């Protein structure tokens, strides 16, 4: 039996996080069919366009004006990990890089010294709905990496290790899990997750009704672990009943027996890592170690725009073709494995 489980209601987003994580949001939007211009074929009257987080009719426009998503905005000093389970995301940035990804892909962006990027949710289908579901996770950078060169890494769905067992699917975006297919994916080199002592793991766990699985103990002595029970009816951990809609902090050094006693599939997101243990100064899109560094980040952005914005508008969309791709700042074009022209 686990010695203790600390439970925290999830409440309104963002979800509560712990060092080394800074932010976690689950976007789950049931967008209608598209209007042929990548926006919803539905009236927008009554929404606060440019800042619509209403969830009205099961979806939001967020900061988008015509296309849902997040037009150009700056970041410095941390990493975004965007795990897209449904739909397509169009990435564009101030380095001139671009990507279209989704359907199980993950983009890991090291913002480092500073980058401006847009994340738009193009509604490509004009004949049926465009469901879009993703996790946006912010992972802090240690002080020594706050000014690392910005870049992104793509983890295509075909590359991401998974553990498959009867009634059990564990998707391993970061970290190592015995029994998972394939080797662990290497995080970006300047990431806290690239340090062996960091013991960073980002997993999703899916259990069918009456399925059981033992979550192994973490490796590091300082590791913190948090489970987000975001979908399903019921969960048991070491025999203790857990209601949905909570964050669960178990002792990371203990294996946990998970059981789904409900009639519906359940899902958990796990964020795990050893704390960086440094001071955090955060304001809006910048995360530094001191207030002076925050002030400098704002001054640098006002002065340089982190390289400027090379796109014709603040919310670029990459055309009607749903094929996934990534074009990096050096001009290298990347496609999912086995898909010469994307897929």
TrEMBL record:
- Which residues are in the Pirin C-terminal domain? 203-307
Any idea where the Pirin N-terminal domain is? 62-139
InterPro entries named among the record's database cross-references: Pirin, Pirin_C_dom, Pirin_N_dom, RmlC-like_jellyroll, RmlC_Cupin_sf
Q: Which Gene3D superfamilies match?
A: Jelly Rolls
Region listing for Disordered, in residue ranges: 309-343
Q: Which Pfam families match?
A: Pirin (PF02678), Pirin_C (PF05726)
Residues spanning the signal sequence = none
Looking up PANTHER family in the UniProt record yields: PIRIN (PTHR13903:SF8), PIRIN-RELATED (PTHR13903)
Family membership noted in the UniProt record: Belongs to the pirin family.
Q: What is this protein called?
A: Pirin family protein
């Amino acid at each position: 039996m686990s010695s203790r489980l600390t439970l925290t209601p999830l409440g309104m987003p963002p979800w509560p996080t712990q060092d080394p994580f800074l932010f976690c949001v689950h976007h789950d939007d049931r967008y209608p069919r598209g209007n042929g211009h990548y926006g919803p074929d539905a009236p927008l009257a009554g929404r606060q366009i440019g800042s619509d987080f209403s969830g009205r009719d099961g979806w939001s426009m967020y900061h988008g004006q015509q296309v849902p998503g997040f037009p150009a905005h700056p970041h410095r000093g941390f990493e975004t990990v965007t795990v897209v389970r449904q739909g397509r995301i169009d990435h564009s940035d101030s380095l001139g890089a671009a990507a279209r990804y989704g359907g199980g892909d993950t983009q890991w962006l090291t913002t480092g010294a500073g980058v401006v990027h847009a994340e738009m949710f193009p509604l490509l289908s004009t004949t049926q709905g465009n469901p879009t579901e993703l996790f946006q996770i912010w992972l802090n950078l240690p002080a020594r990496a706050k000014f690392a060169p910005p870049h992104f890494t793509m983890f295509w769905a075909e590359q991401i290790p998974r553990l498959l067992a009867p009634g059990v699917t564990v998707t391993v975006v970061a970290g190592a899990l015995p029994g998972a297919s394939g080797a662990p994916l290497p995080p970006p080199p300047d990431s806290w997750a690239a340090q062996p002592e960091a013991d960073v793991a980002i997993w999703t766990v899916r259990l069918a009704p009456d399925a059981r699985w033992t979550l192994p103990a973490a490796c590091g002595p300082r590791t913190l672990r948090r489970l987000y029970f975001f979908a399903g009816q019921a969960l048991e951990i070491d025999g203790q009943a857990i209601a949905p809609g909570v964050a669960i902090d178990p002792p990371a050094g203990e294996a946990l027996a998970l059981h789904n006693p409900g009639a519906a599939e359940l899902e958990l997101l796990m964020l795990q890592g050893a704390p960086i243990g440094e001071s955090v100064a955060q304001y809006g899109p910048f995360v530094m170690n001191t207030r002076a560094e925050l002030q400098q980040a704002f001054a640098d952005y006002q002065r340089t725009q982190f390289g400027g914005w090379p796109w014709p508008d603040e919310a670029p969309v990459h055309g009607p073709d749903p094929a996934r791709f990534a074009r990096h700042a050096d001009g290298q074009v990347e496609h999912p494995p086995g898909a010469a022209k994307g897929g």
